[in-house]
Amino acid sequence: MRSMRWYRCTLLAGSIGLAACGENASMTDLVDSSHSDGARSTSGVALRIDVLSNTDVSGFVFDVTSCPGTGNVSITTRRSLEDLVIPSAGGTPPNSMLDSNSRHLFADYFQMLAPGCYDIHVTPVRDSPTGNVPSADCIDVTARNLQVTSGRTTEIVLISQCTDHGDPGAIDVIVAINHPPRIEQIAFENGKFVCEDDAFIVCATAYDPDGDPIMFDFFSDVQMVQVSEGACECTPREAHASITACWSYHESIESVGVHSWHVNVYDLMENGMRFEDYLRSPPPSSTQVGNPNAISHASMEGPFYVVDQDHCLN
């Protein structure tokens, strides 16, 4: 460690704002000093890297000036980070207010001065080929009216506060399991074979295992109308509660013969959107990626027969 001298200033950038540079960074201490009144400036050479945080600081520029109206001292000196942390096994500098268990990177600047009053402004800087560029992460710190007396060292500890790159956030991912509806029964009110003047009625009974609202979508090669009450979009009172919807064909039949029916049962989201549509193409407000192969419906199909009057017995 350095021996005690007439004047010593130690500046810290610690865990409340840690000084930093890249792993391969190097910086030589630079001195640009103009002084009078017997002031002298010293410098050293050091390689320092930040091992504690991710800020851009590689050192500090110390500007020492006489207090207004007391002299004309003006000294500018660059110091790199030390290769240790404080507090250390050797103890904590007096009046530093640092916890004995904490670890702060720092730079140490010792300067001999004539007795008098001085102000110090310290600028954290980052490694740059263009010279001492102020840090974008840590702020300047100033001390005023430091008294230097003959034959004694005035030691102070300053703290340069660094700004974090943002408090950590979090993601909370909730994945819900969804099941497609299930068709549990198909019924034909007048049978699958009807005379041309009779109504063909097919009924589908379905439920959703998750208790979602369900929607029946019926289509055929002939026009049919829904005849059940409450019909297209139905909300079950609880999971596995069954709902029945019916469709009918009844008009003058021009095409006697075999026809087909098909029913799909979809489960619905709160806004009435089909789960299947959402999964295949989520709206812009969703971050979920669409799956074009997603299926969330139940299906059933079959034939029915329209018989001409010549083949009907009544």
Topology:
Elements: E1 7-13, E2 31-34, E3 57-66, E4 74-80, E5 85-86, E6 104-110, E7 116-126, E8 133-134, E9 141-148, E10 154-159, E11 182-188, E12 193-195, E13 200-207, E14 214-220, E15 225-226, E16 233-234, E17 243-249, E18 257-267, H1 275-280, E19 297-307
Parallel strand pairs: 1-10, 12-19
Antiparallel strand pairs: 1-6, 2-4, 3-4, 3-7, 5-6, 7-8, 7-9, 11-13, 13-17, 14-16, 14-18, 15-17, 18-19
Low-confidence stretches: 1-49, 229-233
Can you give the mean pLDDT? Answer: 78
Judged by helices, strands and strand pairing, the structural class is mainly beta
Q: What string gives the helices and strands in order? A: EEEEEEEEEEEEEEEEEEHE
Number of domains: 2
Strand content: 35-45%
Largest sheet: 6 strands, antiparallel
So what's the overall shape? Answer: rod-shaped
Q: In DSSP terms, counting alpha (H) and pi (I) runs of 4 or more, how many helices? A: 1
Number of strands: 19
Termini gap: 117 Å
Q: What integer value in Å does the Rg equal? A: 42 Å
Q: Percent helix among the residues?
A: under 10%
Give a structural overview:
This protein has 314 residues and is mainly β. The protein folds into two domains: 7-159, no CATH class; 182-311, Immunoglobulin-like (Sandwich), CATH 2.60.40.10. Helix content is 2%, strand content 39%. The chain has one helix and 19 strands. The protein has one helix at residues 275-280; strands at residues 7-13, 31-34, 57-66, 74-80, 85-86, 104-110, 116-126, 133-134, 141-148, 154-159, 182-188, 193-195, 200-207, 214-220, 225-226, 233-234, 243-249, 257-267, 297-307. The strands form four sheets. Strands 2, 3, 4, 7, 8 and 9 form a six-stranded antiparallel sheet that branches. A five-stranded mixed sheet has the order 12-19-18-14-16, with no helix packed on it. Strand 7 (116-126) and strand 8 form a beta hairpin. The radius of gyration is 42 Å and the shape is rod-shaped. Mean pLDDT is 78; it is low at 1-49 and 229-233.
